[in-house]
């Protein structure tokens, strides 16, 4: 993520997902079709999507995330580096004690190969103990990936320099279970709420986060710290910029703000009101896939003047439920 973009990934204000009728998303229930699925019980419905960060103290725009703001964030570690010094090259989202959702192009990369290890509870990549002005976290946990599961219909189309990824979603099965959830490691909710089924996100202000590039150019260094940014869904603007599929979401941040290389696989997040004891939960509505530039002939920039294209997770909940196992 880049500076203003950087703002992109820092953290604090989880936007309440009320885009349209003011009460459209009050106290949502889960779609009955999902609740009937035999693997429904594998999802942590009462443990997902909440953070200990007090929403009253959140700010709009941010840069660096607060520690524990996005406890579902997972870093995919470069398999070509020694495990103790490996850097994060893609993001992901923890969805239960055994599975991470990421992008297919992160799990099946020509440069990196298959993902072997991920890190949970990370904030600053290069410190053992992460502290901010408010508190310190417990040490991050590195976990072995048992299986990289690529969506069977994943493919890229178009010229290699401007390729479009379709069905760009994957699951990483961890070799061991996450033993306990805490304020720094916790799953995000899948978009199984009835109110999210078939609804347009047009006009909604969402969030994305990651450890991606700090600038728009190919040589821009990655961020040492988890960052976040707000992105706005604008179907009209996106459709005039570049076509995208019904299985994708298009979003755009302020000029200069964007998700950048290294943010791929990370979450596009909405916050909804919940019926649980927690008044709000965060929902995984998209997976960062790729950016599309206004100027197809300007290959010097990889983000910052782009729209972001995200895999629409509501289109893949059935596949996720069919694929996960105990």
UniProtKB/TrEMBL annotation:
InterPro entries linked: Peptidase_S1_PA, Peptidase_S1_PA_chymotrypsin, Peptidase_S1A, Trypsin_dom, TRYPSIN_HIS, TRYPSIN_SER
Transmembrane segments: none
Top-level taxon of the source organism: Eukaryota
Keyword rRNA processing among UniProt keywords: no
BP terms from Gene Ontology: proteolysis
Leader peptide range in chain numbering: 1-21
Oxidoreductase is among the record's keywords: no
Matches recorded under Pfam families: Trypsin
Residue span, Peptidase S1 domain: 59-325
Keywords recorded for this protein, A-Z: Disulfide bond, Glycoprotein, Hydrolase, Protease, Serine protease, Signal
GO molecular function, one term: serine-type endopeptidase activity
Similarity comment: family membership: Belongs to the peptidase S1 family. CLIP subfamily.
Protein name: Peptidase S1 domain-containing protein
Lineage: Eukaryota, Metazoa, Ecdysozoa, Arthropoda, Hexapoda
């Amino acid at each position: 993520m880049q500076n203003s973009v950087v703002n992109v990934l820092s953290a604090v204000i989880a936007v309440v997902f009320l885009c349209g009728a003011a009460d459209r998303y009050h106290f949502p229930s889960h779609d009955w079709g999902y609740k009937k699925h035999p693997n429904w019980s594998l999802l942590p419905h009462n443990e997902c999507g909440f953070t200990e960060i007090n929403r009253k103290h959140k700010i709009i725009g941010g840069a660096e995330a607060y520690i524990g703001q996005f406890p579902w964030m997972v870093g995919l570690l470069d398999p070509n580096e020694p495990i103790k010094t490996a850097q994060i090259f893609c993001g992901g989202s923890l969805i239960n004690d055994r599975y991470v959702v990421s992008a297919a192009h992160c799990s099946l990369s020509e440069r990196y190969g298959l993902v072997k290890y991920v890190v949970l509870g990370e904030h600053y990549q290069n410190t053992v103990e992460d502290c901010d002005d408010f508190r310190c976290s417990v040490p991050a946990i590195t976990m072995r990936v048992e299986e990289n599961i690529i969506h069977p219909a994943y493919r890229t189309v178009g010229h290699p320099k401007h390729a479009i990824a379709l069905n760009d979603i994957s699951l990483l099965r961890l070799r061991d279970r996450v033993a306990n959830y805490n304020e720094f490691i916790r799953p995000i909710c899948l978009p199984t709420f009835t109110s999210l089924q078939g609804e347009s996100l047009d006009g909604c202000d969402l969030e994305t986060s990651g450890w991606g590039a700090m600038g728009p150019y190919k040589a821009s260094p990655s961020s040492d710290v988890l960052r976040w940014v707000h992105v706005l869904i604008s179907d009209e603007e996106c459709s005039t910029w570049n076509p995208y599929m019904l299985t994708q979401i298009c979003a755009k941040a302020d000029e200069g703000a964007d998700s950048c290389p290294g943010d791929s696989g990370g979450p596009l997040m909405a916050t909804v009101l919940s019926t649980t004891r927690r008044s709000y939960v965060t929902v995984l509505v998209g997976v960062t896939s790729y950016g599309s530039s206004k100027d197809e002939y300007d290959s010097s920039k990889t983000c910052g003047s782009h729209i972001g294209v995200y895999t629409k997770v509501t289109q893949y909940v059935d596949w996720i439920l069919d694929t996960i196992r105990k």
